[in-house]
Amino acid sequence: MSEDLRQSIAAQVEAVGGQSTRLMDVVRGVQAAHGHVGEPAIQEIAAQLGLTGVHVRGVVSFYHFLSERPTGAVRIHLSDCASCRLAGAEDVAAAFEQALGIEMGQTTPCGRVSIAWTSCIGLCDHGPAALVDDVPIIRLDPERARSIAARLLAGATPADLAPRAAAGASLFEQISTLVPPNVRAAGPVVLTQRERGAGLLAAISLEPGEVIAQVKAASLCGRGGAGFPTGLKWQFARQSPGERKVIICNADEGEPGTFKDRTILMERPGDVIEGMTIAAWAVGAQEGLIYLRGEYRWLLPLVQAELDARREAGLLGADIGGAKGFDFDVRVQLGAGAYVCGEESALIESSEGARGCPRHRPPFPVQKGYLGLPTVVNNVETFCVATDLMDRGFTSVARLGTGQSRGTKLLSVSGDCERPGVWELPFGLTLHEFLEVVGGKDAIAVQVGGPSGRLVPPADYGKHLSFEELSTGGSMMVFGPGRDLLQITAWHMAFFVEESCGWCVPCRAGNKLLADRLERILAGNGLPEDLPWLRELATTIKATSRCGLGQSSPNPVLSLLDGFATMLEGRLRPGRDRGREPSFDLEAALQDAVRVQGREPVFHNEEAQS
Predict the structure, then answer these.
(1) pLDDT of residue 579
(2) Is the dihedral of CA 266, 270, 271, 277 positive or negative?
């Protein structure tokens, strides 16, 4: 091992105070500085943090943005979500491949550039999109891809590719030049202007139990999609024994088609932090974490600046708002590319420096979460709503929406519509009304809640966006005439295969079997008996998987079977033919051998000789 690498690792370890639970920060730092975290680095990190090499290697191998093998000096990650693909990502990928002289997943011979597909990067409304290292590049087309490739090969840095804000621009203006927030409708609850600290000061004028009572009275449900009552979660955490308690903001929105948290963190980062601080007062917490997805590394300066400003204003730190003994502060924990870390216990594992594998329950995080402490995990939007609730009273939320779905919902809208972007709309809209607003009246289907949600057919456009009928964490993908819903479903299943943590067999193996059978139907080799087989397997995966990922991953298949059966049946071949099923494409299977040997195969046809 070089002395340079040893000293670099020592600097990373010192920066986190030698805490082994901060392993994620250490390996991210080494990856950024050296392009990979190889075996020598793994062993040195393990030695300096008092961990095993197996543990460190397991973490490095788990996350998409970490690599044990050397990669290019610059890494391009091109988003493969359905919205980006439908906007032309495949053509962009082909242009990159041609200009760089390599295929996806490879590095140029000079070692300068690597390129690979990656799961959704939260830029669906600006697609096709990519991350060049940590720099977001939006609205790509083949010509621009070729230009970027040429510039990188000539020595340009990722920062050189980014558009420049005007001289003297604020940090917000600089980041907005990279990625416009794209707010289409700012509603009265989340994306609204408010005085910094007003909600927090109102909260600390009340007893903690009174704050929880107000949150419960407003029927504030978590905005991540599951809709668990926020006040009840805070009450459980407050009642759990423990000298220290923790508040975590889940900013790991990895559901394909979801990007509303990105906009909130750009437009209202202070309201998120204020909501966390209100929760800390209510629960009795002393420390907080914002788990920021690795794909949003470019947002970190904006979030850090807001944390600094709030400390300076006495709204974070010691004796907050003049309340003696109310001490609470927040740090940012960066992820490194793993959809499963959106599940709260997997997020906690990752924050503790481990692979992001969901935990067994009970105990629940409110009983034993981060570092074994009672922990509240809410998402970005939920904390914003809590801030508004304390600022203007529970009627600000309760007067909007439906009986069980109070207030507004931020929707990430992408796909085949005239006005993609972020919309803050009241709960209770029908899909007909939603499509009218966003300009998608001719839609043949709407993916509500991302791939883990539901693909809704036109016959159900009268249903309401609410926890009671069509629940959504925010992702709304519109698919217009001519789109192949079977292909889109196959992309969604490929996503779940890639993002499974691999812990349990139903999710690890079952999703792969579903994906393979969809590919068989796409290839024209599907049979009528495939449909009940798909339904039975999907139902089994949902019933037997360990966590929410596996319990929702079959939803794309079940939605297709429920809402688009006629379309699916039209893609099938007739029934069994002489006892043989066309489940294996020999010619396709031989293509790797054809490329290696440089000659076409010769098939022996028994039927032709009989």
Answers:
(1) 47
(2) positive
Q: What amino acid occupies position 244?
A: R
Strand runs labelled E in 442-536: 445-448, 454-456, 475-479
pLDDT tens per residue across span 294-348: 999 999 999 999 999 999 999 999 999 999 999 999 999 999 999 999 999 999 9
Contact 410, 264 (CB under 8 A): yes
Respond yes or no on whether the N-terminal peptide bond of residue 70 is cis (omega within 30° of 0): no
pLDDT over 90 (residue 505): yes
CATH of 484-610, one of 1.10.238.20, 1.20.1440.230, 1.10.287.130, 1.10.530.10: 1.20.1440.230
CB atoms within 10 A of CB 127: 27
Q: Which of 28, 131, 120 is nearest to 83 (CA)?
A: 120
CB 491 within 8 A of CB 85: yes
Encoded tokens for 67: 């690599």
H or E element at residue 275: helix 269-283
- What's 183-398's CATH class? alpha beta
My answer on whether omega of the bond before 363 falls inside 30° of 0, hence cis, is yes
Task: Give CA–CA dist 222/245, Å, rounded.
Answer: 20
| DSSP sequence for 282-305 | HHT--EEEEEE-GGGGGGHHHHHH
Beta bridge partners of 118: 79
The CATH topology of domain 3-62 is Arc Repressor Mutant, subunit A (1.10.10)
CATH dotted code for 74-162? 3.40.30.10
Name the H helices within 413-510: 431-438, 485-499, 505
pTM across the whole model:
0.93
Burial class of residue 67, CB neighbours in 10 A (0-12, 13-18, 19+)? middle
Instruction: Determine if residue 105 is left, alpha or beta; phi over 0 gives left, psi from -120 to 50 gives alpha, anything else beta.
Output: left
* Per-residue pLDDT tens digits for 338-396: 999 999 999 999 999 999 999 998 999 999 999 999 999 999 999 999 999 999 887 66
Mean pLDDT of the chain: 94
